[in-house]
Write a structure and sequence with these properties.
- This protein is of the alpha+beta class.
- The protein has three domains: 110 residues, D-Maltodextrin-Binding Protein, domain 2, CATH 3.40.190; 142 residues, Dipeptide-binding Protein, domain 1, CATH 3.90.76; 248 residues, Dipeptide-binding Protein, Domain 3 (Dipeptide-binding Protein, domain 3).
- The protein is 24% helix and 18% strand.
- It is built from 17 helices and 23 strands.
- The strands form six sheets. Strands 8-9-10-1-11-21-12 form a seven-stranded mixed beta sheet, sandwiched between helices. It has a six-stranded mixed beta sheet with strand order 16-20-13-19-17-18.
- A hairpin with a 5-residue loop joins strand 2 and strand 3.
- The longest helix has 18 residues.
- It starts with 49 loop residues before the first strand and ends with a strand.
- This is Peptide ABC transporter substrate-binding protein.
- Keywords: Signal, Transport.
- It comes from Virgibacillus indicus.
């Protein structure tokens, strides 16, 4: 799953030194003319060619930046759509669709000058009206109810509350000054002003007259050939759940891409390596990369290049501490005042006990083969705000787990080897997880075994296909206790509120901790928050609260292992993803 990731920054492809070869000399006496030397091999970028990448899970099918939820869909959108700003390898913001900008003295307004001559895939010009429309759509009444989860980009804009509540039809937060100048206005000095305006833009001429509730089911959201962006490739063909084709946008404003096509194939992880080895696929990248168990095998293939880097995210075991009411699920409402506690998982001692019961280092050693790390803080390790020292380590300690369960009143009252609830009732904890990621699938029974070993009866449910799983997770199926999921984090800022604030759509465990919400709020409040040391202190305090209350146990951060055929050139992954400037990718045949 994805918390919205940034488009990649600009970089130049580097050419290798050409090899020189000579033809064998003619036999003596056959000709007096000297033998001709062969032209040096040309290793400058070549036009043409097709690349094939592999994903282990099919995209859910929502190819619209303001509504998609999964990393698999982002693998399509990263080629098709662009943001006003991009990020470089140091996570600094750089020009993209906006070529420059100015911020006022108190950081409440930013005015951007857009690139001219940019066109959408259908030939229509890109203008400031598209920017205004994109943000207006995310601020619209009914956006959340329609499944939108990106309100973090608009809630700080002037007039959001009035517009979102329907009090006014005018949205004052984003203004088109002219065709190529746009101004964002914020209610208060905004610490994350560059992150907030760096969201992928969608076309006003396609969606402008479409009711917000109908956008998720609109053909331009769902159908290959109708999804329109400004990016270097257009989504042109789809054999659903099997193959997704991206064809080059010859009129791309940064220059015609070298490649003709990029094809995503959906293949099971068990056969992916064989396909990479025999050349049927060219690369394995996000969201899961090359399985750690296959690292040595892939590294031994002469024609395959490997890049390994720390993941910009983590896998977790989440606790459903609360559930929404049926009425709120039906209406799409997220209101913590209405939530119903999940009797057992809402007990903090139980959550802490399960953390001590699980040997996470053993999972890293045995399933990840050491290509990863145990983490306890839910902020990307690459960010300045990450503070491992602020949290409880929850080292493997089954005896401590048993003590905490005893303290919470979950004891084996009838000597059958299994603990009952404090009321003396049978206690069964269910674990739910999706298919697709083999490492996560392999982790599920191991986690169940660890929990069973401290006397808890576990119902390890059959895994569900990701799309159905996320639907159940979102709708708060009321008997869920534990869920497994992975997060690819946004790279724009360490602010964790998009995942962990009580009213965040991605707060799937429905964690409701006022102290947590307050600390996240304080970490964003000006003027103090313009000092990074202040924010770092607040986030350290927040990580301590998270670690103690423990709405989820962070299992590990798996290293990203990217594998690609040596014929692919121009690859320069960013810290947050493999797809970076794909218009500069090219193949040597």
């Amino acid at each position: 799953m994805v918390a919205c990731s940034s488009d990649s920054g600009d970089s130049d492809a580097e050419a290798e030194e050409p090899e020189k070869t000579e033809e064998p000399a003619e036999e003596e006496g056959t000709d007096d003319e000297p033998a001709e030397e062969e032209e040096p091999a040309d290793d400058s970028p070549q036009m043409g060619g097709t690349l094939t990448g592999a994903m282990d899970t099919a995209p859910a099918g929502v190819f619209n930046p303001i509504f998609y939820e999964e990393a698999y869909e982002d693998n399509i959108l990263s080629f098709t759509h662009e943001s006003l700003l991009s990020q470089n390898e140091n996570l600094e913001f750089e020009a993209n669709l906006a070529k420059d900008w100015t911020i006022n003295d108190d950081n409440t307004e930013i005015t951007l000058t857009l690139e001219e001559g940019v066109t959408w895939h259908d030939g229509e010009p890109f203008t400031a009206e598209d920017v205004v429309y994109t943000y207006k759509a995310m601020a619209s009444p009914g956006y959340v109810e329609a499944g939108g989860v990106r309100t973090e980009y608009v809630v700080r804009l002037v007039g959001y509350e009035e517009f979102n509540s329907g009090e006014t039809e005018e949205f004052a937060g984003v203004i088109a000054e002219d065709d190529f100048t746009v101004t964002f206005k914020f209610t208060e000095p905004n610490v994350t002003i560059l992150k907030d305006i760096a969201f992928p833009i969608i076309p006003e001429h396609i969606f402008g007259d479409v009711p917000i509730a109908e956008i998720p089911s609109h053909p331009a959201t769902l159908n290959a050939g109708e999804v329109i962006g400004t990016g270097p490739f257009q989504f042109t063909e789809m054999l659903e759940r099997e193959q997704y084709v991206l064809s080059k946008n010859a009129d791309y404003w940064k220059g015609e891409p070298y490649l003709d096509q990029v094809i995503w194939r959906i293949v099971d992880q068990s056969v992916m390596l064989g396909l990479l080895e025999n050349g049927e696929i060219d690369f394995i990248a996000d969201p899961n990369g090359v399985p750690a168990a296959d690292f040595e095998t892939v590294a031994g293939l002469d024609h395959i290049e490997i890049i390994e880097q720390t993941d910009f995210g983590y896998q977790l075991m989440g606790f459903k501490t609360n559930h929404r009411t049926d009425a709120d699920v039906e209406s799409g409402t997220i209101n913590s005042d209405n939530w119903i506690p999940n009797e057992d998982m809402s007990e903090q001692l139980v959550r802490q006990a399960f953390a001590y019961a699980i040997d996470r280092q053993a999972i890293v050693d045995n399933l990840l083969y050491g290509h990863g790390s145990v983490i306890n803080a839910p902020i990307a390790q690459q960010f300045w705000a990450y503070d491992e020292s602020a949290v409880t380590a929850y080292e493997y300690d089954p005896e401590k787990a048993k003590e905490l369960l005893d303290e919470a009143g979950y004891v084996d009252a009838n000597d059958d080897g299994l603990r009952e609830t404090p009321d003396g009732e049978e206690w069964v904890v269910n674990i739910n997880y999706p298919t697709g990621n083999q490492l996560r699938e392999a982790s599920a029974p191991i986690l169940a075994q660890f929990i069973e070993e401290v006397g808890v009866q576990v119902d390890l449910r059959q895994p569900k296909e990701m799309t159905a799983y996320v639907e159940d997770l979102t709708n708060d199926n009321t008997d869920w206790d534990i869920y497994l999921i992975g997060w690819s984090l946004g790279s724009g800022d360490p602010d964790p509120s998009g995942l962990w604030k009580s009213d965040a759509a991605y707060n799937f465990g429905r964690w409701n901790n006022p102290e947590s919400d307050q600390l996240m709020l304080e970490a964003m409040q000006a003027p103090e928050a313009f000092e990074q040391d202040y924010r770092a202190e607040k986030y350290s305090e927040w990580q301590a609260v998270f670690s103690e209350d423990l709405p989820a146990l962070l299992l590990y951060a798996q290293n990203k292992i990217y594998g690609f055929n040596e014929r692919l050139n121009g690859v320069a992954p960013m810290p947050y993803g493999f797809i970076n400037d794909p218009h500069l990718w090219w193949v040597s045949e």
